[in-house]
Amino acid sequence: MNKKKKPLLQQVAVEDYAAEGKALSKIDGKVIFIEGAVPGDVVDVQLSKSKKEWGEGKAIHFHSFSPDRVTPFCEHFGVCGGCKWQMLPYEKQLQYKQNEVVQNLKRIGKVQLPPIQPIIGCTETARYRNKLEFTFSNRRYLLPNEIAAAKEAPIDQENALGFHVPRLFDKVIDINTCHLMAEPVNAVKNTIRNYAKEHNLTFYDIRFHHGWLRTLIVRVATTGEVMVNVCFGYDDEKERVRLFDHLLKQVPGITTLLYTINPKKNDTIYDLEPKAYFGKGYIIETLSVTPGGEKLKFKIGPKSFFQTNTRQGERLYQVTRELACLTGQETVYDLYCGTGSIGLFVSDKAKKIIGVETVQEAISDAWENAALNNIEHAKFFAGDVIDVCTSEFFQEHGKPDVIITDPPRAGMHEKLVRKILETSAPLVVYVSCNPATQARDLNLLDEKYEVTHVQPVDMFPHTHHIENVVQLKLR
What we know:
The protein is an alpha/beta fold.
């Protein structure tokens, strides 16, 4: 039976950007969301979905290119799904992100808004990440030209170290140079891959769950410290020692080298125990509380959460601190606090910090970071925020003067929104990595709170992701 042929739209003029980095156009009143295009392009679109009022598809042929396009700086652009906006000037990226925040808050939030502040962009638009995770695979993704060449002569289709291909769970792109992170990330990655190939070490097979080398996680701090964690499917001490000794000799900048044995079917390491082969097993990162001012220290282990863009995370926290309007007399609740970084960042201006986070390991890190910085008036509690933050909890630890909330992409649970309304804290600062769910929550909070300040912050250049900080005051 022949599959139904997908509709093709020809000569589509791309007009604008929508959410999640998709371009859009309107044809006879129907909105078409387009992957892989830039406003100003004229393209043919192969539709994957076609509803009455909207459709979705991919640009498969370009009749003309937008004058806004620039040449991508990465050789893997268009295949790797990491930096989808490299073909846009950074100024344009910021413009579209600003528009997305405005549209989400207006259309979904439907609340009275103050003038929205101009987005704070990144000073560094490449090599800005402090953490990357690469995957070993015995199923290398072949580019179209490689597939054509394979018809003429045999080609190595095995063993890659890089990133998963979007929508293909078992294929990995072999990455030569990634521009997302400062060196020695590429030196580490390429040294391990080359050694593994030369010595016939097995790369993991995600389909059948066998093989030795699984994942590689690299962290680089602004202090110059470098952490490398290699995850293996099983332990082989003899080969591991040979590999690690070779790596340390070739890349002397590594300050701590760990390994994690992972016999599970998934790649998560949060229920596993990384072990140090070399170094102290963690790195130290610092954040400036004010520009050029006092620095806080943070101990980052192999399982710690930390803002992925250190310098822009610092700016995000400075904005949050400014909007909290602290005088030194306030009890501050830091909800979804992670390793306590926001709470500790504002602690010198608060009377008391109470942090709540689901992940026990993050709370352990929060206590440790508080001790590292001699902060004694911060307390941290593990558990689901909606279970921990009861009326009794607020009564025990003090009525909140300021609530800082930094939920995951799904936003706040409605029960927590109701609890915030019930507490009637004078001021709330809502830090969000998803302005759409933030807007939904603002609509609920509108019952008692007015939005008094909106500040978008770009954390991830060349992607559609955006952070937004909103200040709300009790009516």
